[in-house]
């Protein structure tokens, strides 16, 4: 079979396995109450007919209540007009973040409004102001009007920006009340009144996670933002079939049914790319050619490090359990794979080095084994081990940490600081909802699934995310360079990067005066980023104190990560409280007059990086997961040691090293959840929250992207799954 025929079959299988589930269910079809009710075990779904009827009644009640509220707002609107004649009095105060370490940090540029409500339920705005650089506000108002008997209550309200929408190419912010405080008429005795400070739990940082994360105590009630109803509806529509499949398997396991097996579980889920190809070209997915192709242009999007001693050869390296806490049930060795390019520029593996225990009897974490194609069956076993180690590294390092957590650190700093600076309109549409899905991932991935289906414990996973985040920085980052004409992912990386660069530069140049005018927001954004950044990976250890083997291993890992993540170790960085911070500052200036051309360049570079990571980079890894992880015996995120001395150096037929049945259905459930429940795309712009200029730029390159296997319509506008 020719290469062209194989490519055509792969193309057909990609089309066949891109399954979507239209909502064909009836009234009594099971449904999720919300995204927040998804669980690795038994998700909270509504399936009982009586419960569905009750929930339907509750939904109708909420809709009626919403319509009543809309009618009330129509009858008693909140008009922009400020009421009053003699604005001779002032009410002032301060808005700060909740106290941390005894320091109340001011919140700049928050909208504060003074409102009165009449006995006829009409609202009257008595005054408004915006907090200054120190979080202080002062509102002039008509005291006589405020104390009028016609008003039965007075209150001060603080507003936050919840969404950015676009009408054509004009940004329209949407504000909502974040906090309110009642004001007593008796307090308004003099011309000046100092109201007690607003101390807000506003996008606060967690102190129980080793990386910058936002505080969410109750995801239903006090999250800093919420999913739109449209996003929740799409997930329920797309995902219920998978949820019911998993629920059936868990029930069979609970009953001790002999009917259920790995093969039974596999057949219950949709066919994935590797299974489809294997049906049409038996043995091809286990070939060296397919192995190299998927490493280069699949979910892993591997970074090919040139071998300095052998031109034309490259290394791809996955570092396994290393020093992290493990459970002793699953193996997670390092896998270093050496490739040579074939005549079409696709990588062929010529050597695999596995470092670490391959069975439960070995204790040396640095024991090495080398394999080559001449090793026959052991070469096939080594490729499978490398696939699995590579997949777990891709999921934890590149997907969850490199896109999800990386984006969250920018989202928190942005929502805490960007309000009236135009950069808010540029970034916030691409940063929304990531903190919500990450909060769900804490339980679904870090607590309930990965510690029971891979080698790493919850603590090991958290420590690893901190280390990997310590290699992520916007400054100096560029996409990977193509190593051959067949390196499609690197080509599309650069295409998207250059489009985003053009979009960001054009936006910043068009709004430069306003950006400089409110430069304080950029300064505070940068300051929060750097202060809460994790330390640079390995900057807190003395490598010279390590023994020679461990030192060489650590240095090997560090050097490869610098290459892989585009991290520049010699770059000047800030040290805060003894920690060398990974994220570089955008600016050191808070005064608009001191803004330099370098500051503007830094701002542009940082914005390009943020949008690239939150949209395209996340999309690539996310939508390819089921391609790679949808066949249980071929790939996965964990191989059990088993009880034999050979350990994981064994064939696919050895089920003692395969996932157990519970982990098997949970893994296929999770990769379907992540790959197939998407909502919020740049060019589709379902909620009108993406700048149409950006969409147009992408659509102009639609055919070029498609030639390289990317549909621009499927590039997500934010990280929300």
TrEMBL record:
Task: State a single Gene Ontology molecular function.
Answer: metal ion binding
Establish whether keyword Electron transport is in the entry: no
Entry keyword annotation includes Oxidoreductase: yes
Q: Which UniProt keywords apply?
A: Metal-binding, Oxidoreductase
Q: Which Pfam families match?
A: Lipoxygenase
Q: Which GO terms describe its biological process?
A: lipid oxidation
Domain (Lipoxygenase): give its ranges: 339-448
Q: Which InterPro entries match?
A: LipOase, LipOase_C, LipOase_C_sf
Q: What is this protein called?
A: Lipoxygenase
Q: What does the organism's lineage look like at the top? A: Bacteria, Pseudomonadati, Bacteroidota, Cytophagia, Cytophagales
């Amino acid at each position: 079979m020719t290469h062209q025929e194989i490519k055509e079959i792969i193309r057909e299988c990609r089309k066949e396995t891109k399954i979507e589930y239209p909502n064909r269910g009836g009234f009594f079809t099971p449904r999720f109450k919300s995204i927040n009710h998804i669980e690795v075990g038994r998700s909270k779904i509504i399936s009982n007919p009586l419960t569905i009827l009750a929930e339907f009644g509750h939904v109708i009640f909420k809709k009626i209540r919403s319509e009543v509220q809309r009618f009330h707002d129509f009858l008693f609107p909140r008009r922009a007009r400020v009421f009053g004649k003699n604005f001779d009095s002032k009410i002032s105060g301060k808005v700060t973040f909740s106290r941390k370490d005894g320091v109340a940090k001011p919140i700049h540029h928050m909208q504060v409004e003074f409102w009165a409500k009449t006995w006829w339920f009409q609202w009257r705005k008595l005054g408004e102001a915006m907090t200054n650089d120190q979080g202080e506000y002062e509102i002039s108002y008509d005291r006589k009007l405020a104390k009028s008997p016609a008003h039965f209550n007075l209150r001060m309200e603080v507003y936050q920006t919840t969404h950015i929408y676009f009408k054509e190419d004009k940004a329209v912010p949407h504000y909502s009340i974040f906090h309110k405080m009642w004001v007593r008429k008796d307090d308004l005795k003099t011309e000046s009144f100092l109201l007690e400070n607003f101390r807000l739990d506003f996008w606060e940082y967690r102190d129980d996670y080793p990386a910058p994360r936002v505080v969410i105590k109750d995801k239903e009630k006090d999250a800093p933002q919420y999913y739109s109803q449209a996003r929740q509806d799409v997930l329920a529509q797309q995902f219920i079939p998978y949820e019911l499949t998993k629920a059936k398997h868990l029930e069979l396991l609970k009953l001790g049914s002999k009917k259920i097996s790995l093969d039974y579980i596999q057949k219950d889920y949709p066919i994935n790319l590797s299974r489809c190809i294997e049906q049409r070209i038996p043995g091809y997915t286990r070939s060296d050619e397919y192995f190299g192709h998927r490493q280069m242009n699949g979910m892993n999007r591997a970074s090919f490090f040139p071998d300095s001693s052998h031109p034309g050869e490259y290394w791809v390296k996955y570092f396994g359990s290393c020093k992290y806490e493990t459970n002793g049930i699953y193996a997670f060795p390092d896998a270093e794979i050496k490739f040579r390019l074939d005549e079409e520029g696709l990588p062929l593996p010529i050597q695999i080095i596995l470092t670490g225990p391959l069975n439960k009897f070995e204790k040396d974490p640095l024991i090495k084994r080398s394999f080559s194609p001449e090793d026959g069956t052991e070469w096939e076993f080594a490729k499978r081990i490398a696939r699995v180690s590579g997949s777990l590294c891709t999921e934890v390092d590149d997907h969850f940490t490199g896109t999800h957590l990386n984006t969250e650190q920018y989202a928190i700093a942005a929502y805490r600081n960007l309000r009236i600076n135009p950069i808010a309109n540029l970034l916030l549409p691409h940063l929304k909802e990531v903190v919500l899905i990450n909060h769900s991932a804490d339980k679904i991935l870090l607590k309930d699934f990965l510690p029971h289906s891979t080698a790493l414990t919850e603590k090991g996973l958290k420590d690893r995310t901190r280390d990997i985040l310590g290699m992520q920085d916007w400054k100096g980052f560029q996409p990977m360079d193509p190593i051959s004409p067949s390196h499609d992912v690197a080509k599309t990386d650069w295409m998207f990067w250059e489009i985003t660069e053009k979009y960001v530069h054009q936006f910043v140049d068009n709004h430069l005066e306003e950006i400089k005018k409110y430069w304080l927001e950029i300064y505070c954004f940068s300051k929060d980023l750097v202060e809460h950044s994790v330390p640079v990976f390995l900057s807190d250890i003395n490598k010279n104190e390590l023994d020679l083997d461990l030192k060489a291993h650590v240095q090997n890992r560090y050097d490869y990560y610098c290459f892989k993540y585009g991290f520049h170790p010699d770059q000047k960085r800030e040290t805060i409280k003894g920690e060398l911070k990974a994220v570089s500052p955008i600016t050191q200036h808070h005064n608009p007059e001191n803004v330099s051309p370098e500051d503007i360049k830094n701002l542009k570079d940082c914005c390009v990086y943020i949008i690239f990571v939150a949209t395209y980079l996340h999309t690539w890894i996310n939508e390819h997961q089921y391609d790679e992880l949808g066949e249980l015996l071929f790939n996965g995120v964990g191989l059990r040691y088993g009880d034999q001395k050979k350990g994981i150096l064994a064939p696919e037929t050895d089920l003692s090293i395969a996932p157990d049945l519970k982990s098997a259905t949970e893994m296929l459930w999770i990769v379907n959840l992540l790959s197939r429940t998407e909502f919020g795309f740049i060019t589709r712009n379902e909620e009108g929250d993406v700048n149409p200029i950006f969409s147009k730029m992408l659509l102009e390159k639609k055919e070029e992207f498609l030639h390289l296997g990317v549909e621009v319509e499927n590039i997500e506008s934010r990280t929300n799954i």
